[in-house]
TrEMBL record:
<dbReference type="InterPro" id="IPR029063">
    <property type="entry name" value="SAM-dependent_MTases_sf"/>
</dbReference>
<dbReference type="GO" id="GO:0008757">
    <property type="term" value="F:S-adenosylmethionine-dependent methyltransferase activity"/>
</dbReference>
<keyword id="KW-0949">S-adenosyl-L-methionine</keyword>
<feature type="domain" description="Polyketide synthase-like methyltransferase">
    <location>
        <begin position="54"/>
        <end position="298"/>
    </location>
</feature>
<dbReference type="InterPro" id="IPR050447">
    <property type="entry name" value="Erg6_SMT_methyltransf"/>
</dbReference>
<keyword id="KW-0489">Methyltransferase</keyword>
<dbReference type="InterPro" id="IPR013216">
    <property type="entry name" value="Methyltransf_11"/>
</dbReference>
<dbReference type="InterPro" id="IPR020803">
    <property type="entry name" value="MeTfrase_dom"/>
</dbReference>
<dbReference type="Pfam" id="PF08241">
    <property type="entry name" value="Methyltransf_11"/>
</dbReference>
<keyword id="KW-0808">Transferase</keyword>
<protein>
    <submittedName>
        <fullName>Class I SAM-dependent methyltransferase</fullName>
    </submittedName>
</protein>
<dbReference type="GO" id="GO:0032259">
    <property type="term" value="P:methylation"/>
</dbReference>
Amino acid sequence: MRLEVYICSDFLLFDFIHVEMLLHVNVQWEEMTMTAEPTSADVGAYYDRVSDMFAAAMGGNVHVGYWHDESDDSSIEVATDRLTDMVGERLALSQGQHVLDVGCGNGKPAHRIATRNGVHVTGITISEHQLRQALERVKDAPDLLRFELADALRLPFGDGSFDGVFAIESLGHIADKITALGEMGRIVRPGGRLVFADLTGVLGEDGQAGKETEASAQMLMVAGLPTADQYRELIQAAGFDVLEVVDIGENTRKTYDHVADVLKATAADFKAEGQDVPDDAELEELSDSDEMTYVLITAVRRAE
């Protein structure tokens, strides 16, 4: 374990008041990480292989959907776009502002948020395949969209250069979450928002992560599943004040049934293309597990 203190411009991203808290929360969530944590190259290669498969199963997006309740019969495309809209609403953007999408996937969420809100979105990914797909979307909104290959651990942008930042199912892949969140805090101006949407762990009565959590993390190339409370502390230590934490795990569970149905019909084709296809049992484990949930966290950058 290590703690890195970064000084950017004239403000301290992790001031010494937070050192004890960072050490405490870092030890807790590192106990939940994979045996072999994925590198940035590993994650990029993973999404080069699986992006098309998951996009085909998730209505063009590469993230879960949101259903209001059990009676909601929305299609997977409507449900995944709905989650994108929930992220966009929480960014509270004004027309003309500039927001960063960390882990932009194939660019569909960035395109939707940009065109629906009249804002500029820069998206970054470490998957060359996803970057090529995202760049195709620039043709529809050349004045609003920009995509590039970049690592969340070393964002190639100046301090305070964005009005907001969002990360949909990307931070979970990053082993060094402290550095990644610190970089997000660095590039967002004071008063700008961070919106985070991702799977999180749920500790058992013994205070430990269950075996299902570790197995699911390995299947999804996830570098540990901190709990919502642990993410809250990490986000606050990165210079943000957390405004809202919403557990929407029950609203996202239908995603795995939809994905399973599509993969049953298409698994042979995707396997022939060399893609890693999860089996029915693995998807059912994700759907039914009480060791994981899904949260939306909204935070605002503090003035230093």
